[in-house]
Design goal:
Blueprint (H helix, E strand, L loop, with lengths): L1 H35 L5 E8 L2 H11 L5 H7 L4 E7 L2 H12 L5 E7 L12 E11 L2 E13 H16 L6 H29 L12
Parallel strand pairs: 2-5
Antiparallel strand pairs: 1-2, 3-4, 4-5
Amino acid sequence: MRALRDETERFMQQYKFGMDEVITKLSILREEFSQAHAYNPIEHISSRLKSVDSVVEKMRRKGVEPTFDGIRETITDIAGVRVTCSFVSDAYRLAELLTAQADVRVLQVKDYIAQPKENGYQSLHLIVEVPVFLSTGEHAVAVEVQIRTIAMDFWASLEHKIYYKYDRRVPGDLLEQLTDAARTAAELDARMERLHRSVHGVPHTRTAPTHV
């Protein structure tokens, strides 16, 4: 049991270190923009690492045997990094800057900005793979990166709290209000970006990275 515990801790450490690698890359970009450019697209960076219990529960729901190889091949959001920015174009720009780095491999792209979810949620989701160098050698680690605007981050936070309060059985009228609020947030994003571009002339980029 002790050996299994130690192996599990080492396995989860790889994801923690992979998450740290992505955070470092984004933090460097953030600092470079602050010092060398008139505008910094990164407002906030946060992260989270799934618990072992959460990973096992997800494997159970998927009907997959919870082995280390099975987890590595099936669960791609054990390590997660979230970036909030002011404008939609910032999300695409940051995604391009991150995925252009030589040691970052794009595994998957879900562009919920170009194609919002039915509830109105908009965000750019990337699954990237980064190398982690340990005493045991190099390990490729998958990290989920979510990039979204401040307005949509606020909406997503509120949605999460409502779903938690109602144990995911949210009344229909509240769901309709949430969807309407998401549309309002998207309209606000578009208006604020138009104002920003009229003042600063920031180029409008709407191209998500392609995955390998």
